[in-house]
Amino acid sequence: MSAPHLVIAGAGIGGLAMALSLARRGIAVTVVEKRTSFGELGAGLQISANSGRILDALDLTLPLKRVAVSSQGLVVRRWGNGSQLLEMRYEPERMPTPFRLMKRNDLHTVLLDAVRAMPNIRLVVGRGVEDLSADENGVTVGLAGQSGSAETIAGLGLIGADGVRSRVRDLTGDASPPVFTGYEAWRTTVPARPGEKPGVTLHLGPGRHAVHYPVAAGREINLVVVRQAKEAREGWSREGDRAIVTEHLSGASPALRELAGAATDWQVWSLFDRKPAAMAKGRIALIGDAAHPVLPFLAQGASLAIEDAAVLARLLAEKLGSEGASGVPAAMADYAKLRAARVARVQAESRGNGRNYHMSWPLSLARDLALKRMGAEGLRRRYDWLYDWCDDN
């Protein structure tokens, strides 16, 4: 009897983590990506312990060590004068799973290399999901290429990992559009400065914030500046005018302005939100931004997609082992039930952070006092529920 087979739409971080998680359990996968090459845009990301444990379990510890930086903590500062509000220190050597800082495309490359080494994963580039039909035996997915070419793929189910503008989500009947948040993120990388402590620094200001941390095994600093914008512009990443971000940073601390001044180019990303989807319907499941876009104010977008992949892969393997192909809809329904409360909480916390980060005076004064009272241990306890998660929670 041939191995069970599933189709995944989207070859980003979530889609590749999904493919690898299934393939390691003996489930064959076809990953389709509408772009003509595999790749991941964006500057940097933070991989906290909740998703880092999953990557370690996928035997990615060594390749990740080559490209990541183990964070030694978090410092929160005021935008205008750079004064410190809070410092939380980590000791990576004492942590079972370090808090990893890395370039987005470095993580993507690590996952892609692992996927390509699996004989039961097929990668299809330049094809996007166009339509879908399903019956009691499985699904038939219609694909369309940019040149107009078409083909179909059959599988036991379809997993949408195709981002905030998910075509798979549309095919479930949920076509609610993404909504512009009124903010845009300006991203760049600059050469690392000698002697800088490896960790995350967050600057809070009225209607704006900035975050920076080392990436590329410590050779570069990833810098993101979030500012208010009157209108959205399409595209994950577009070139930004340096003069605009320089003006925006005119009231920032000297250290932040100096760091930004080392940048030679900026990429801009309009921030969109979207209400959570039904994460499963019959033989279709959604993961990552396709199911629950997460604003970047908690640094959990990639981590949540990796969590989704681990949970769904485990449930599918269990049901396929006990019930065969007929168990796929039940596995997907169980996945949706198991994930709903957690992803809703992460989304809400991220939105709340966005409001708190961008407070104007006098509300910012109350926020700053609350941070100082909370201290490092209080902040750790506040997020135990997030970082201590594992698949058997």
Strand residue percentage: 25-35%
Structural shape: globular
CATH class category label of the domain at 5-68 and 102-177 and 274-387: Alpha Beta
Taking all Cα atoms into account, the compactness measure Rg is 21 Å
Tell me the span between the first and last alpha carbons.
34 Å
Biggest sheet descriptor: 8 strands, mixed
Give the integer mean of the pLDDT values.
92
- Widest sheet: strand ordering: 6-5-14-15-16-13-18-17
Please identify, by name, the CATH architecture of the domain at 5-68 and 102-177 and 274-387: 3-Layer(bba) Sandwich
* CATH homology-level superfamily of the domain at 5-68 and 102-177 and 274-387: FAD/NAD(P)-binding domain
Total beta strands: 20
What can you see in these coordinates?
The chain is of the alpha+beta class and 393 residues long. The protein has a domain at 5-68 and 102-177 and 274-387: FAD/NAD(P)-binding domain, CATH 3.50.50.60. It has helices at residues 13-23, 49-57, 61-67, 104-116, 167-171, 242-248, 254-261, 301-323, 328-357, 363-382, 384-387, and strands spanning 5-9, 28-33, 44-47, 69-70, 73-78, 84-89, 100-103, 121-125, 127-135, 138-145, 150-155, 158-160, 179-191, 200-205, 208-215, 220-228, 238-240, 266-273, 280-281, 284-286. The strands form four sheets. An eight-stranded mixed β-sheet has the order 6-5-14-15-16-13-18-17, with helices on both faces. Strands 8-2-1-12-20-19 form a six-stranded mixed β-sheet.
